Amino acid sequence: MQISCNWHTEYAYSVCMTIRHGILTLLSQGPRYGYQLRAEFEASTGAAWPLNIGQVYTTLSRMERDGLVSPGEQDEQGRVVYSITEAGLAEMERWFRTPVVPSDRPRDELVIKLAMAVTAAADVRPIIQAQRTATMRTLQEFVRAKRASVGDPAQRLVLDSMIFQAEAEQRWLDHCEAVLTASPQTQEKQR
Amino acid sequence: MSFDPVVRLTDVSRVHGDGPQAVPALREVSLDIAAGELVAVMGPSGSGKSTLLNLVGGLDRPTSGEVVVAGTPLSGMTAGGLAGLRRRHVGYVFQDLNLIPSLTAAENVMLPRELDGVRAGRARREAGDALAEVGLADVAGRFPDEISGGQRQRVAIARALVGERRLILADEPTGALDTPTGDDILQLLRARCDAGATVLLVTHEPRYAAWADRVIFLRDGEIADSTATPLESARLSAERTPASGPRSGGEA
Predict the structure, then answer these.
(1) Residue B86 has pLDDT above 80, yes or no
(2) Which domain CATH number covers B143?
(3) What's the rounded mean pLDDT across residues A58-82?
(4) What is the mean pLDDT of residues B155-163?
(5) Is residue B251 part of a domain?
(6) Does residue A67 surpass a pLDDT of 60?
(7) Residue ranges covered by each domain of chain A
(8) Are B97 and B156 in contact (CB under 8 A)?
(9) Residue among B242, B213, B135, B168 nearest A143 (CA)
């Protein structure tokens, strides 16, 4: 997933803000180089959220403009160490205090697809079945990654979050199937 | 390691009742499960999950089709023969653990071996090993109501593993456990598979089914779909996985 920071949508905006706060949190543990920030960000999120180095530097220069971080001197290899400022610490603390709002998330294509299929009187069962198997394969991959993340609680919790979300989708698909099977309207359509 | 499947179902049907009241619980299901494989079965109530598990365990007989466990067709066996096969090869883990409250953890685990005719001293040693494998050596002398729910479920798994049992049938083994404890149970079953045992797991929780090599979805007594990769390649890739460890390693 590569994220552009043009903030075309609320979602892209929220992603940019999350990268920004993630970087602030890493800097709150001490000054770091850009490439270190990238590596540590990915390690904490179990590579669930790959960053490119350009995103890291773009974010750092915006935060420098906003007074949240300050760069040190360039070393002989041209690398710059960044530190968090008082304002940056305050911003990070504000982030941790503020709950995430559901509208920050993108609209779900699967939900729209199923709703459209029901509206169009298509047979929804094969769609549900194919999705259920695909979602289970994804879940299996998350579990494999989780088994490999032994000893890294941050990574494990990120993967657990993805597992719970995939599981919610799976449960919802089962629910859709049960509701549609019970509905006389659907039974009529399938005849 | 043998390449013969540990479990083979060929066109297995199970009909309850007959005549107009006949209810098909399972319809012509065919399924191979290899040594070292963890297979999860998912499906709504009444889809045939428990029937499938009971047929594989020899607790129920198919109306038609054949069930072969560890190379032995179950159809020709007497009730006594089935009981013997179950004791030698099959371990059960249920949601309602069925631990005997008046026996200690170690005594619960020893029980199937004593029923096998193994002497008490050896049965106790084996029970100690099985409990150590599930990380419970220190509670061997405690009674079921003196340990936590997660520990009780691990005792039930130790009991399912004790002796030569290489096939574990698990029916909702994570039942009432919280999610980290449920993960521990799956971790344990997974480790047993990686050491060469075979597990058939019935669960309604996707997060636990996802620990399996293969997830089978039952609908109205039929396999509606599965996450199967072709069996040969699944086996090869399982053997390439570094985490799987030596397949020859026994339960000790």
Answers:
(1) yes
(2) 3.40.50.300
(3) 92
(4) 86
(5) no
(6) yes
(7) 10-103, 107-190
(8) yes
(9) B213
Q: A26: which residues sit within 8 A by CB, 6+ positions away?
A: A32, A37, A40, A41, A44
> Is B126 in contact with B161 (CB distance < 8 Å)?
no
Specify the pLDDT at position B238. Answer: 44
Partners of residue A143 in chain B, C-beta under 8 Å: 207, 210-211
A142 touches B at CB < 8 Å = yes
What chain B residue is nearest to A163 in terms of C-alpha separation? B207
Q: Does B224 touch chain A (CB under 8 A)?
A: yes
User: Does B10 have pLDDT greater than 80?
Assistant: yes
* Interface touch A167/B207, C-beta < 8 Å: yes
CA atoms within 13 A on the CB side of A184: 0
**Of B15 and B242, more confident:** B15
What is the reported pLDDT for A32?
A: 94
Distance CA B12, CA B28 (A): 5
Backbone angles phi, psi at B244, to 5 degrees: -75, -20
CATH class of A10-103: mainly alpha
Q: Which of A102, A126, A108 is nearest to A176 (CA)?
A: A126
pLDDT at B2 over 70: no
- Total structural domains in chain B? 1
Average pLDDT, chain A: 82
Residue B206 in domain: yes
Q: Which residues in chain B are contacts of A142 at CB distance < 8 A? A: 210
Is pLDDT of A191 > 60? no
The C-alpha atoms of residue A166 and residue A119 are separated, in whole angstroms, by 25
Residues from chain B that touch A139, judged by Cβ atoms under 8 A, are 206-207, 209-210
Residue A65: helix, strand or coil by DSSP? helix
- Looking at residue B202, what is its pLDDT? 95
Interface contact flag, A136 B210, Cβ < 8 Å: yes
Q: How many C-beta atoms lie closer than 10 Å to residue A101's C-beta?
A: 9
Tokens coding A108 = 């779900």
Of B184, B210, B213, nearest to B199 (Cα)?
A: B213
Instruction: Note down the domain range covering B33.
Output: 7-244
